[in-house]
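User: Structure please.
Assistant: Input sequence and predicted structure:
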Amino acid sequence: ETAEKPTFTAPSGFSSEVTLTFDLTVDNDASAVDGAIVYVGGHPSADAGTDLMIDENSGSHSLDGSGSAPWDVEGINYSWAVSNDPTGEVAATLTNADTATPSFTAPTDVGDTFVVVVFTLTVTNIYGGEDTDQVAVKIYDADCPVADAGPDQYVALGTSPVTLDGSGSNLRGG
């Protein structure tokens, strides 16, 4: 098909995941090729949520994997694990790790600056499909200032003005 946004009907009647591969070729006097993969009937998509910034000794916090997609009517199974825990305290407090929204308790002391704890979400389904995603939780010392330059931006050449946003920064204890 020669459309910019072609459509198709996903196949049905399979008892396991089907992978469809599509190639897009764009020609003028030169050509470019790119591929897209569509998983039908079984491949879940993990979404561990957005990265977090919290304070030490700030109690219980929740993670959010509810953006994960089951791509089938049977749903998905969740499994959260701590991939990196420099404090050694967070892994022991992870609860409801088999749900979309587990919780953990912030460590009581992270030293003079901050630590980054990484959680990995693995989602699986009855077809054997599996996907993983990670979320980083930056845990700050209560007196450590926070610098937040804002989100990455994509702008066209010559765009003016381009505004950066450091409003998420604060001096905290300073």
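Residues 74 and 126 are 7 Å apart (CA to CA).
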